[in-house]
TrEMBL record, chain A:
Protein name as it appears in the record: NADH-quinone oxidoreductase subunit L
Domain spans labelled NADH-Ubiquinone oxidoreductase (complex I) chain 5 N-terminal: 80-129
Domain named NADH:quinone oxidoreductase/Mrp antiporter transmembrane: residues: 146-431
Species assigned in the record: Phytohabitans maris
Gene3D superfamilies attached to this UniProt entry: 1.20.5.2700
NCBIfam families, per the entry: NDH_I_L, PRK06590.1
Record's subcellular location: Endomembrane system; Membrane
Membrane topology: Multi-pass membrane protein
InterPro entries given in the database record: NADHpl_OxRdtase_5_subgr (IPR018393), ND/Mrp_TM (IPR001750), NU5C-like (IPR003945), Proton_antipo_N (IPR001516)
Keywords: Membrane, Transmembrane, Transmembrane helix
Transmembrane segments: 12-34, 41-62, 96-116, 128-145, 151-170, 191-210, 216-237, 258-276, 288-309, 316-336, 342-364, 385-404, 424-447, 468-489, 509-534, 614-636
Signal peptide location: none
TrEMBL record, chain B:
Quaternary structure, from the entry: NDH-1 is composed of 14 different subunits. Subunits NuoA, H, J, K, L, M, N constitute the membrane sector of the complex.
Membrane topology of this protein: Multi-pass membrane protein
Protein name, as recorded: NADH-quinone oxidoreductase subunit N
Pfam family, one: Proton_antipo_M
NCBIfam families: NDH_I_N (TIGR01770), PRK05777.1-4 (NF004441)
Keyword Transport tagged: yes
Organism expressing this protein natively: Phytohabitans maris
Cellular localization per UniProt: Cell membrane; Endomembrane system; Membrane
Positions of transmembrane segments: 12-34, 41-60, 80-98, 132-151, 157-175, 187-211, 231-256, 268-289, 301-320, 327-348, 354-375, 396-414, 434-460, 472-494
EC number per UniProt: 7.1.1.-
Family recorded in the similarity comment: Belongs to the complex I subunit 2 family.
Role noted for this protein: NDH-1 shuttles electrons from NADH, via FMN and iron-sulfur (Fe-S) centers, to quinones in the respiratory chain. The immediate electron acceptor for the enzyme in this species is believed to be a menaquinone. Couples the redox reaction to proton translocation (for every two electrons transferred, four hydrogen ions are translocated across the cytoplasmic membrane), and thus conserves the redox energy in a proton gradient.
Any one GO molecular-function label of the UniProt entry: NADH dehydrogenase (quinone) (non-electrogenic) activity
Length: 638, 510
């Protein structure tokens, strides 16, 4: 069983850890409140605040390394105290939150810097940075809270910021629709998360991490299962996992740096953080772990199958995000040491996916905002830095050694083969298949964009490389994609052990060496096939295709499914209620009354207009209420 | 002939009500004797001073826990807390009522009886005078509400109900602009209100038949001990609850709410949304917790069903609204549902969290209606939502303030709306009403959608030809708006003091 969770109180320099959240928040407030006066220098304030947070984060990180008990808690004030409920406004800085802080501020800083160049000609640049800072503050709060309510605050905050940023280009109707879709699907997940928190309060009387985790052992397994499933629902909503995956690709309508920061590197991984943070709950129930693993495996396949069929550079990357987070869910679901594997994959993914998105943005910047990969080709000659950095990130994501993706994805595949019985084969092969398909569609993306014949639209004659403010972040992210994998697979796993548990190699159904060899072979095969197929370019129009490709182009009919199952009944319910509210009750009562006798007919003639129908609906309600009371009463008598 | 013994009255404890009734009577007197030019400022100052004085007395008397006036009035923790809340919220509403900077003569017409559209009406519309009777009327309504939450027997409660309702019916009809709509709203409110009062009164009669008394304490004893048929009791509870739920705007007794909120002058809508809500729930709490708590097992399922229906109707119908006042009306209905969830916790936590919710919601909703009074064009307030598109570009400050208010309604953390929902849901869960909480969470997620749709419309749409500008508020409206917004923020960030206060006040005397 899990040992008792205890956090030390923060003192000394670490007691200023709240600055991490406060600085970007203050910057956001300044940017949004000062208005046009801040237009000239606002973006630099935005970048600067994240840089300061990063430096602070690093300092805290080294402070924490020097401590014996590497988990410190900082209680700022009593937030809510109602009867037996008590919620602190408190922060927790432990190895898990520390790595997230470094990811958010580090990658966040590079993306902020890049956005200075990318948004240069946008009149709303200052507001954009305000929202961007707001997002960073909320995300930091999310990972730094010491209880589930604080996590929920951050959760809602990043949702709000993401909604605003997706819909930033309000003049594009597709952006507005995408914002709405993201919001609605997230609400489904949020409702699950909120109910899970209430469940904790009801059962354990607290939402503090330490108390909840120590109390999980006393709960019945049914309750743990329910709590875990509700948390999982929240996690799938935020992280774009099955069955709530459909919003994430549409969210790419926002500016590219937003896609990179929020919808690739940080916010969408909040679901993984939630599950990793609640690992004592998930470890306590085996069914729960199987559900998480299944969600992960299914989503990683859905993501890469759809990724093969898309022609929009950002959408391919979006579906690949869905698929890669599927790997992370697979990891956290496997439990034990695989938690740490999921987190290092998350960190590595943060680097290479941010690199890919920013690279895509750089390509779009040079190509008049064209996003269709069928209209690219041969770009390597014109944007060498983008090509090189994108190439490294591509090799990293498909998992070619010695780049980061290899060191982080391969252990997850191996861990999937370590499950017991036939599920090892099921999930192991799913992960392996996913690796092959990932290699295929990412190679297709890379080759069609940068190599092969030019298929540009007429108005582009000479694509240009982006300015240094955009390429420098690209280079730094590429360095991260190259170097970070090996570094992380060793030291970060040890670093995370106190929070997530020991990583021990289990018994796989085949030898570890064979799994490694297999995963490299399928990757190379997938990539080779894509290269052979697409090195001469591709058709400029969508071609008729078989049922599988058609289904993939339609996002495996997830949208149609949502429409049929959620949207239509929702619209129907609303219409029905509106109808009832306006006329229905009146009609119903009139019908009833006519059946009962002519009395109401005379009554009706005495009244005119709407007040009558209102009074009728009140009367109906009153009759129902009285009848319900008396029915209960008679039932009690009998 | 027997001597009639007058019951002793603790005048100190009932002083807030006496002050306000006195102020209202003096106001009527001033209306008769003062010259027209002096009336408005005198009346406004008098009303505000009366409210402040009453509030001071409540603070001084805050430790009183007694029954007085022969057991007809209970001055205890919940009474004092809710009275204080009604006075503060009433004060804010009165600031909105008194504002004349937005429109010459204010939002109220001088002579509402003149036929709309006639020559005489056009003449008076162009003159800058407005009604001044509104001040004593509003003070009468507020005083009636104070008595309503203090009433400890059913007849006193009924009298108080009428005392605060009648001035409200009148106030609804006095809008300067769109007066036909306003008069229609007033008439509807009056007819349906009278109808609901009849239910209430019939319920009182049935309960008297059961318990042989209208005093809550005696009813409480009778519920435990009486051998009478309980059909009288349950019929009575049902009908009394209906009368109170009508005022609280719970479904299916909410039907008047959208029309009346839309038609009434906006400051009065604010008064109704905040103060009437407090009064109605205060009375409901006392009736259910003090008189009928022995029957809780039987009424919880029925009232729970009403709460669920109310939340659903409010949340779902808010989605399709195109008028900001109607949108806020449906939001007010949904909030009645959340308040009912708190009431049905039937515990000390339920009582204290419901009181917290009432205050938090009251401040926010008055601030919301204050913003509504500001967004206007040549024809008065522009309430159609399409007119609010792009407001963020024209007036970022007010669009920002309104965004904050909407986020509070949506229950986003760090606003009072979040704490309030959290507290009532927590209390209900603690009492084992998980099904209500699940509906509550789901509908509040749903309800966030119409709010955020307004936010997006304000900020992310291009202002059109018809986007009105936001008027710069006069001092009174600005003060009300400021109080509301600051309270929403403070109660969201540091709710502990008020939560302590409600927890200490959450004990009825019987």
């Amino acid at each position: 069983m899990h040992e008792t969770v205890e956090y030390a109180a923060a003192d000394g320099f670490l007691s200023t850890v709240w600055l991490l959240v406060a600085i970007p928040l203050a910057s956001a407030a300044i940017l949004l409140l000062l208005g046009k006066r801040a237009d000239k220098w606002g973006h630099w304030l935005g970048v600067g605040s994240i840089a300061v947070s990063f430096v602070l984060g690093l300092t805290y990180f080294f402070q924490l390394r020097g401590l014996d008990n590497r988990a410190v808690e900082l209680k700022l004030f009593d937030y809510i105290e109602v009867g037996s409920f008590k919620v602190d406004f408190g922060l927790l800085f432990d190895p898990l939150s520390a790595v997230f802080v470094l990811l958010i501020t580090g990658v966040g800083f590079l993306i902020h810097l890049y956005a200075v160049g990318y948004m240069e000609h946008d009149p709303g640049r200052r507001k954009f940075f305000g929202y961007f800072n707001l997002f960073a503050a909320a995300m930091l709060l999310l990972v730094l809270g010491n209880n589930f309510v604080m996590l929920y605050f951050g959760w809602e905050g990043v949702g709000l910021a993401s909604y605003l940023l997706i819909a930033f280009w309000y003049d594009r109707p597709s952006a507005a629709t995408a914002g709405k879709k993201a919001f609605l699907m997230n609400r489904v997940g949020d409702a699950g998360f909120a109910i899970a928190i209430f469940l904790m309060f009801q059962q354990l009387g607290t939402a503090n991490y330490a108390d909840v985790f120590n109390g999980v052992g006393s709960l019945s397994s049914g309750l743990v299962l329910m709590m875990g499933l509700l948390l999982l629902l929240g996690a799938t909503g935020k992280s774009g996992q099955f069955p709530l995956q459909a919003w994430l690709p549409d969210a790419m309508e926002g500016p590219t740096p937003v896609s990179a920061l929020i919808h690739a590197a940080t916010m969408v991984t909040a679901g993984v953080y939630l599950i990793a943070r609640s690992n004592p709950i998930f470890t306590a129930n085996e069914t729960l772990q199987t559900v998480v693993v299944s969600v992960g495996a299914l989503t990683l396949l859905i993501g890469c199958v759809i990724g093969c069929a898309k022609d929009d550079i950002k959408r391919v990357l979006a579906w690949s995000t869905v698929s890669q987070i599927g790997y992370m869910f697979l990891g956290v679901g496997l439990g034990g040491g695989a938690y740490a594997l999921a987190i290092i994959h998350l960190l590595a993914h943060g680097f290479f996916k941010a690199g890919l998105f920013l690279g895509a943005g750089s390509v779009m910047h040079g190509m008049n905002d064209q996003t269709d990969i069928r209209r690219f080709g041969g770009l390597w000659r014109y944007m060498k830095i983008t090509w090189a950095t994108f190439g490294l990130a591509w090799l990293a994501i498909i998992g070619i050694p010695p780049l980061s993706g290899y060191f982080t994805k391969e252990p997850i595949i191996a861990a999937a083969f370590e499950r017991e019985g036939w599920t090892a084969w099921l999930f192991g092969m799913a992960a392996l298949l996913g690796a092959a398909i990932t290699a295929f569609y990412m190679t297709r993306l890379f080759v069609l964009t940068f190599h092969g014949p030019k298929r540009w639209t007429e108005e582009i004659d000479h694509p240009h490389e982006s300015p240094p403010v955009m390429t420098i972040p690209l280079v730094l992210l590429a360095v991260g994609s190259v170097a970070a994998g090996w570094l992380m697979s060793t030291s970060v796993v040890d670093w995370l052990t106190p929070v997530l548990g020991e990583h021990e190699e289990g018994h796989a159904v085949m030898s570890h060496g064979l799994i490694t060899a297999l995963s490299i072979v399928v990757t190379v095969l997938g990539a080779g096939l894509a290269y052979a197929l697409f090195r001469t370019g591709t058709a400029l129009q969508e071609q008729p295709a078989g049922p599988i490709v058609m289904a993939a182009r339609r996002n495996l009919y997830a949208d149609a499914f949502n429409e049929a199952v959620f949207e239509k009944p929702g619209i129907f319910l609303t219409r029905a209620l509106v109808f009832l509210d306006n006329r229905g009750i009146d009609g119903l009562v009139n019908g009833l009354a006519a059946a009962v006798g002519g009395g109401s007919g005379r009554l009706r003639r005495l009244q005119t207009g709407f007040v009558r129908s209102y009074a009728m609906s009140m009367l109906t309600g009153a009759l129902l209420v009285v009848a319900a009371f008396l029915a209960l009463q008679l039932g009690w008598l009998a | 002939m027997q001597d009639l013994q007058l019951p002793p009255i603790d005048y100190g404890a009932v002083a807030p009500m006496l002050i306000l009734f006195g102020v209202a009577c003096v106001g009527v007197f001033f209306e008769a004797v003062l010259p027209r030019s002096a009336r408005r400022s005198t009346q406004l100052v008098l009303a505000l001073l009366g409210l402040v004085a009453a509030f001071v007395v409540i603070v001084v008397e805050s430790d009183t826990r007694i029954l007085t006036a022969g057991g007809a009035v209970a001055i205890d923790g919940p009474t004092l807390f809710l009275q204080g809340a009604i006075i503060l919220l009433g004060l804010m509403a009165l600031l909105l009522v008194g504002d004349r900077s937005l429109e010459a003569g204010g939002a109220f017409v001088a002579q509402a009886a003149i036929t709309v559209g006639s020559d005489a009406d056009r003449r008076q519309a162009s003159r800058s005078q407005g009604a001044t009777e509104i001040y004593p009327l509003a003070v009468f309504a507020i005083a009636g509400m104070l008595l309503f939450v203090a009433a400890n027997d059913l007849l006193t409660m009924f009298v108080a109900l009428e005392v605060f309702s009648l001035p409200l019916y009148l106030l609804c009809a006095l809008a300067r602009r769109r007066r036909l709509l306003s008069q229609e709203a007033a008439l509807k409110y009056f007819l349906l209100g009278a109808y609901a009062s009849a239910f209430f009164l019939f319920g009182v009669a049935l309960v008297y038949g059961f318990a042989g008394s209208v005093q809550f304490g005696s009813i409480h004893d009778a519920v435990r001990e009486s051998t009478q048929s309980t059909v009288l009791l349950y019929g009575g509870i049902a009908l009394i609850a209906i009368g109170l739920l009508f005022k609280a705007a719970a479904a299916p007794f909410h039907v008047w709410t959208p029309d009346v909120y839309q038609g009434a002058p906006t400051p009065i809508t604010g008064l109704m949304a905040a103060c009437t809500k407090v009064a109605a729930f205060g009375a409901l709490l006392r009736v259910l917790y003090v008189a009928f708590d022995g029957a809780a097992w039987d009424y919880t399922p029925v009232l729970g069903a009403i709460a669920v229906l109310t939340m659903l109707v409010g949340a779902v119908l808010a989605v399709t609204q195109t008028d900001i006042k109607r949108l806020l009306a449906y939001s007010s209905i949904a909030n009645a549902g959340y308040l009912l969830v708190g009431v049905l916790a039937l515990s000390k936590d339920g009582l204290s969290s419901t009181m917290f919710y009432l205050v938090a919601y009251g401040f926010t909703v008055i601030a919301a209606f204050a913003v509504v009074t500001l967004v206007r064009d040549a024809d008065g307030e522009a309430t159609h939502l399409s007119r609010w598109a792009g407001l963020g570009r024209r007036s970022p400050l007010f669009a920002g303030v309104f965004t904050f208010i909407l986020l509070a309604f949506a229950g986003i953390p760090l606003t009072s709306g979040f704490i309030a929902k959290f507290a009532v849901f927590g209390a209900a869960l603690d009492s084992g009403e998980a099904w209500l909480v699940i509906f509550g969470v789901i509908t509040s997620m749903l309800l966030a959608f119409p709010y955020l749709r307004v936010v997006v419309m304000m900020w992310l749409s291009e202002p059109g030809e018809s986007t009105p500008t936001v008027s710069i508020p006069g001092g009174l409206t600005a003060a009300a708006l400021m109080i509301g917004v600051v309270a929403t923020l403070v109660l969201g960030v540091a709710p502990a003091p008020l939560l302590d206060l409600t927890a200490n006040a959450a004990e009825f005397v019987r």
